[in-house]
Amino acid sequence: MPPRDELRAPHSVPGDEVLRLGFIPLSDSAPLLIAQEQGLFEAEGLRVELCREHSWASLRDKLGLGLLHGAQMLVSLPIATRLGVCGPKLDLVSAFVLDLNGNAITLDRTLYERLLEVDASASRDPLAAARALRLLNDRDRLAGRSRLRFGVVFPTSPQNYELRYWLASGGIDPDRDVDIVVAPPPQMVELMSARAIVGFCVGEPWNTHAVREGLGAVVATKNQLWNNSPDKVFAVSEEWAARNPNTHRALLRALLKACIWLDQPENRLSAAYALTRKNYLDLPLDSVSPSLTGRSLRHPQYPEEDAPDFHVFHRYSANFPWLNHAEWFIAQMYRWGQLDVAVDIASAAEQVFWPDLYREVARDLAVPCPAINRKTEGDQLQPMLFASSQQLGPNGFLNGERFEVGGILQYLERQRISRADLTALRAVNESAKIRQCGACS
Amino acid sequence: MKALLIDIDAQRAAEMQRMLDAVGIALISWDDTVDDLYSTVEQLQPEIIIVDVDSPTRDTLEHVAALRQTTPQPVLMLARRKQSDVGISRLAEEIGVSLYVVDALSTDLVHSLIDVTIAHFKSYAILKREVEALEGNLRERRQIERAKCLLMESYGLTETKAYELLRKNAMQQQKKIVDIAVSLIDYQQNKAS
After folding, report:
1. Is there a contact between A178 and A138 (Cβ–Cβ < 8 Å)?
2. Statement: residue B184 has pLDDT above 90
3. pTM reported for the whole predicted model
4. What is the pLDDT of residues A240-266, one digit of tens each?
5. Is residue B175 exposed (0-12), middle (13-18) or buried (19+ Cβ within 10 Å)?
6. Which residues touch A426 (CB under 8 Å, ≥6 apart)?
7. What is the mean pLDDT of chain A?
8. Which residue of A94, A157, A179, B57 has the fewest C-beta atoms within 10 A of its own C-beta?
9. Tens digit of each residue's pLDDT (9 = 90 or more) over A170-213
């Protein structure tokens, strides 16, 4: 039966209209795929068509235009789109995080071996690897060699911010010392094999695939850079959300059920099977299954390692859209000069992430849910388990720094390599704080 | 004039080649297995880029456009009618990129599409510059306001007096008022921290 409000509202999607949801085939498109295959959308009275897209740009545009009703998206893409960073300004929102972690930085074999010559611990320690890379890069520059070139999947992608974070943690300025280009994920491996790039930051299964092919080795995983940080969200346009609140909520319930199912280790192998199919990833199972079954393949000659948190689909309150996570991504847009108009970061985060709606969805399914909207990052190296309410995973940053609640400007200030104009940012954010206090009293 | 063609299927590309030749536009086809889009755009400096709306190269193209902020190219996106019957014209307005749904191409159509795209791009670019200038002004005004408040609080001045003080300093140091305001704010912050 279609949800009630849609029977009344003349402009809304009628109960029998097919909802078009966009996705880009990746290991973490699993929640949409599983929700469809297991009939979880149907159980909510929804008819869904999954639409495979070929670029994040077209996914974004079609969502903004209403050609898609919802989509799997890079976590920072609705945020960037809302702010008009590196593209059009559209009113996208998200109340649901699809997964945490899941990316890695892979270097080609030659560069990887050179790093180990500088510092053998680079194979185990991403920070040591970044510092070794800086040394190599300086040496190469003096020798007159051309700049190292890396690939990421989109200008405002978490992958771009993660690669930059890693490079900068070793003292490399990602804009001045190296080149970063954008390429679609399936092309990364080809570019590396053609020696057009020496490394990339991309989601699974493309890191494992590059290692399986003997092309590269993984030097850092996303959970080593910032543990249990979000990677994909389910996004819709605000206009659609306002007109179809019940359909939206029903979609999120189906996705939440899919994520809970996916979080069980015993279900991961069948999810990997489903993803290998021709119309999805079209890759062999041994490229797709390791990361999904909690194994990390870092080097062609070494055995897989245990990595139970390589993909997190539900535990650690993974699906909750933390406002401070949105703030961190906005801070990256300032840090790397993509955003130069000062905005009030806290309210920008509140516009695009909707934790209250997630709470309603969680309540519908009696799933425990955080009561706060922001949390400190970088202060927990062990999981925090609370019996009744919520679970939080470790949240450490590679360089051991902290990002406190309400402390995004202080966090940004501490970044040594940065393009952010802090004077203007401080002025806008402090006056916003004062206004809010005034409104309270 | 040069047009760079990205991921338009072979049959359509051949059609367009014929038509664009007829109106004196040179067509450059881009082969993603051989050329790198960054250097292609840099070297050939096409006046317009024509791309299929579903091309996997669109993400790279956005980055190329973002890097070339001083001399970006207008982009014409082509889609087939089957994809879309809703709201397609909104894209042009909201995104500042032209998207057209065309099944059959004719010389006249292609030519006018290109004209419209370039004209639209130019007016959009002007608008964007104006908005940026306005935002810049706003930012400066906010900083001046803030510096004024600091002066009023620290020295118990009236608003007019505080502004006068900023203006006088700016004149003496031959700087803009906003620069004086920013250095005052910075000074206060350093003192505080």
Report:
1. no
2. no
3. 0.84
4. 999 999 999 999 999 999 999 999 999
5. middle
6. A409, B185, B189
7. 91
8. A179
9. 999 999 999 999 999 888 999 999 999 999 999 999 999 999 99
Looking at residue A339, its amino acid is L
Nearest chain A residue to B38 by CA: give it: A181
Within 8 A of A61 by CB-CB distance, chain B residues are 53, 91, 95, 99
Interface size A-B, in CB pairs within 8 Å, comes to 95
Of B32, B86, B182, the CB nearest to A423: B182
The Cβ of residue A315 has, within 10 Å, a number of other Cβ atoms equal to: 20
Q: Mutate which of A56, A176, A182, A430 to test chain B, going by most B C-beta atoms within 10 A?
A: A182
Shortest Cα–Cα distance, A307 to chain B (Å)? 31
* Greatest Cα-to-Cα distance within chain A, rounded to the nearest angstrom: 71
CA distance B34 to chain A (A): 10
Q: Is B87 on the interface with A (CB under 8 A)?
A: yes
Sign of the dihedral defined by the CA atoms of residues B150, B151, B157, B163, in that order: negative
Contact A188, A210 (CB under 8 A): yes
From the list B57, B87, B139, which residue is nearest A65 (CB)?
A: B87
Q: What is the ipTM of this complex?
A: 0.85
Amino acid (1-letter code) at residue B188:
Q
B153 touches chain A (CB under 8 A): no
Over residues A405-429, mean pLDDT: 92
CA atoms of A403 and A379, how far apart (whole Å): 8
- Beta carbons within 8 Å of A399's beta carbon, 6+ residues apart: A127, A169
CA separation, residue B90 to residues A52, A90, A352, B93 (Å): 22, 11, 22, 5
C-alpha distances out from residue A275 to A25, A252, A262, A279, Å: 8, 21, 13, 9
